[in-house]
């Protein structure tokens, strides 16, 4: 029971609450090690809720972190984290919910990343193929939108293939915002159409 609870306590939150400033790098978080003096960050918190410093070698789980940082016994470390006799306190419950929500958001983001990359790559390839095959002059206006969007799709495709997670996350937010605007415009258009037809 203790093992399950400590796995669900958000180590990132515990580390940050101790005064360590963490920066997300992909699936990991990185910061200056609290166990030794350093100028270059070598302390990492991983997705599996464990940490390791590649400078001094300190590593472990959330209980190890609290014990070593504050010099606490195992029992006192449990109390510090709000874990007592296998029961979930409100503090731990909140931490578990944050961790679950963070994992859910990561899954949503990775799923979008894969689907959008396939979608954009397909649009990019088909549009390039149209340009190679040639388009009759009378159909140029019909395909003008595709040619206009091609540089945008190339830019998005490059981020998805070669970009950092930070760049992908910004793209994710941008695409979701544009999708929301388009949805609102479509809904407004339908409302105006209904008003005209019922007036």
Question: What does this protein look like?
Answer:
The chain contains 7 helices and 7 strands. The chain is of the alpha+beta class and 199 residues long. It folds into 2 domains: 87 residues, Alpha-Beta Complex (DNA Primase, Chain A), CATH 3.90.580; 98 residues, no CATH class. A 5-stranded antiparallel beta sheet has the order 1-2-3-4-5, covered by helices on one side. Strands 6-7 form a two-stranded antiparallel sheet. The C terminus is likely disordered.
**Count of helical segments?**
7
Give, in order, the helices and strands: HHEEEEEHHEEHHH
* Tally of domains: 2
Helix content: 55-70%
Distance between the termini: 65 Å
Question: What's the overall geometry?
Answer: elongated
Strand order of the largest sheet: 1-2-3-4-5
What composes the largest sheet? 5 strands, antiparallel
Class per helix and strand makeup: alpha+beta
Strand content: 5-15%
Average of the residue pLDDT scores: 79
Number of strands: 7
Low-confidence stretches: 189-199
Q: Rg, please?
A: 25 Å
